[in-house]
Specification:
Blueprint (H helix, E strand, L loop, with lengths): L1 E2 L14 E4 L5 E5 L6 E7 L2 E7 L5 E9 L4 E10 L5 E10 L5
Antiparallel strand pairs: 1-8, 2-3, 3-4, 4-5, 5-6, 6-7, 7-8
């Protein structure tokens, strides 16, 4: 956490993630345990981003996914809650491809 934080820490959704290529072919949908998927768009080779409201609309989130190869990824998620606008929560994740659906 950074900034002037008054509400305490935030535990974002984590665990399994479903990645589905978008119809346009320029990105993918990132589906975690939240109610709605995030539409990730390509920023650079092997790098995809989402920036906007989170799926439960209690704040804004920026997520950057970088694929290091065909099986490994890293995600940086930054979140600012509506009820604590001067506080930035940053979480870093690593993921490994497990199976096709």
């Amino acid at each position: 956490m950074s900034g002037k934080c008054t509400k305490g820490s935030v535990l974002p959704a984590y665990g399994l993630v479903q990645i589905t290529p978008s119809a346009s072919g320029s990105g993918f949908d990132w589906k975690n345990q939240e109610p709605q998927p995030y539409a990730m768009t390509r920023k650079a080779a092997n790098e995809y981003v989402y920036a906007g409201p989170n799926s439960i609309d209690d704040g804004v989130v920026t997520m950057t996914v970088i694929f290091s190869d065909d099986k490994n990824l890293k995600l940086v998620r930054q979140f600012t809650a509506k009820n604590d606008p001067d506080c930035l929560h940053t979480h870093e994740y690593a993921g490994v491809f497990q199976w096709f659906r």
